[in-house]
Structures are given as structure tokens and as C-alpha cells.
Amino acid sequence: MNDLTAPVADDPAEPVDEAAALRLRAYAGQCEMCGAKGEFVGTSLGARESFPCPTCRATLRYREQAGAILTWFGRGRFSFFTRFVRFPECQNLTILEAAIRGPFTRYLKGHPGYVQSYLFDDVAAGDSRDGVVCQNLEAMTFADASFDLVITSDVMEHVADVEAVVAEVARVLKPGGAHVFSIPLTFPLREHSQARARLVAGEIEHLMEPRYHRSGTDTPSLVFTDFGRDLVDLHARHGLRATFHRSHPFVKRLVHSAAVIAVRP
Ligand SMILES: [Zn+2]
Asked: What is the CA(151)–ligand 1 centre distance, in A?
């Protein structure tokens, strides 16, 4: 189990030349998502969007999330996610994933406790489209303590009110549950999170040059927050213990990427 008291104990003081590392490096390993063994090769896409599994194509950031889930819920007894999914340790979990695609949506399809959500513009909160329930993460319709595991992948940087989302995630998590998420992080980690934009009376106010990522429905999605080390404090304000999970000893020396696991004690 991770040491919950030591977030990013090993982040280096100096930034690495990630581009150079990615051009040169590959490593032999096992995929935490599908269990395939093979060579994981750096591409020009940046570390976290790189090192795809040669079999399932899951990139580093998804595999780090899988590693964090296996560490916390699998108690280290499962080496890859698609195996973990078949066992009671996973089958008995209630899981919310705010996504309409990605490896977890594939491998959790048919899981008895799996709920998929997305913020659709034209679906009422709590109603579903194609099996995906419409939810605003800032004000979810779920009861308190509904989920053991909440998964978001590159979502948290796009929410306008991150404080509200963390409060809501803390509310819907069961004791012992966890939110396992990926966000873009730049190492060495900045001390303080930075708002790139904010909502003022419903209007977007840009505080920095607007940055967009592609959303789950292929529309541009504005980045509201560049996160820093203080995301640990943000979670602590809502009773969650956030730590950084880095599951690749080789990659860890090479490039810097991490999943975050925020546990409700
Ligand atoms: Zn794989």
C-alpha cells in the first residue's frame, strides 16, 4: 500500500528533458491494464500520453490509474486490471466513472456496480443516454456514500469549480473509497495550483491564454486549472487524503507522470 503520508517524495528538483528521453527510450514491462508483456516505447506525444501498451494501447496515464486502483483495492494481489475485474475484490465494488470512452469503460462494461456518467448539454441530470447517466460533478444526484471508487481521467482540470467537485466526490465516496484520477502535471510540481480561467456570473473569464483539450465528445474543452502540490490541501479540506501514484520504476527515472489517489478514510 502506498505511504499516504509522503506525497511525491521523490519528485526531482530539476525538470527532465522529456522530449529527449522520449526519443531515446523504451522499456520492457507488463501492462497494468491488460497484463500484456512487451516493449513500451516513448513517442513524441509527451510521457503521460506515451508509452502505449503494445497490446491494449493504454497510455502511461491510464496505466498509472490502473496501478493506483490495484494498489488500493487489489491490495497488491493483482498485477493487472483485466484480471482484477473478474474477482470479488472488484466485482463487489460500486464504481462511478465520469467518461464515455477509454480503457476503463471497455473493461468495466457489464460490471454489476459500474455507473458511467457524462455532462451532456441536452440530457437532464440523473437521466441517461445510451446507458450513460448525465451528471454535473459539481452537484451530483447520487446519494451520500454511494461509491467505493470514482474514476476520472483528465477531467478535473476542466471543471470550473474544482472545490465543489472535490466536495461532491468526498460526499458520494464510501468510507474507505477512493477517487483515482489523472490530470496533467508538470514536474517539478508547482507549489500552488493556478486558475487559468474562472466563471463569473456564468461567463468565462480568462486569466491566462486559453488552453483547450479534446473532450469525450471531440469538442474543445477549456482547461480551468493547472494543478500544483496544494491539491493535497484541497482534498484535505474535504476529508480526503490525496497522494501521487507512480507505478513505473523505469519510467519514473526517465519522465515524470503520476496518477492521484484521493482516499476517504
Ligand atoms: Zn495493455
From this structure: 18
Strands 132-134 and 147-153, bridge-based pairing: unpaired
Using the mean position of ligand 1's atoms as its centre, give its distance from the Cα of residue 38 in Å: 9
- 53 CA to middle of ligand 1, Å? 4
Residue 115 lies in a domain: yes
Domain range for 41:
18-263
**Ligand 1 centroid vs 192 CA: distance in angstroms?**
34
With CA atoms as reference, report the closest residue to 242 among 181, 172, 191, 195: 181
Tell me whether residue 6 is in a domain: no
Q: Ligand 1 centroid vs 16 CA: distance in angstroms?
A: 26
Q: What total number of domains does the chain contain?
A: 1
**pLDDT at res. 248:** 66
For ligand 1, the distance from its centroid to the CA atom of residue 249, given in whole angstroms, is 17
pLDDT of 162 over the 50 cut: yes
Examine residue 11 and state whether it is found in any structural domain, yes or no. no
What CATH number has the domain bearing residue 53? 3.40.50.150
User: What is the reported pTM?
Assistant: 0.90
Q: What separation in Å is there between the alpha carbon of 70 and the centre of ligand 1?
A: 14
229: Cα separation from own chain's centroid:
16
pLDDT at residue 212 tops 80: yes
Query: Is 5 among the domain residues?
Result: no
pLDDT tens per residue across span 219-249: 899 999 999 999 999 999 999 999 988 876 5
Read off the pLDDT of each residue in 201-216 and give the average, rounded to a whole number: 91
- Ligand 1 midpoint to CA 132 (Å): 25
Angle, alpha carbons 245-248-258 (nearest 5°):
35
What amino acid occupies position 155? V
What is the DSSP code string of 170-186?
HHHEEEEEEEEEE----
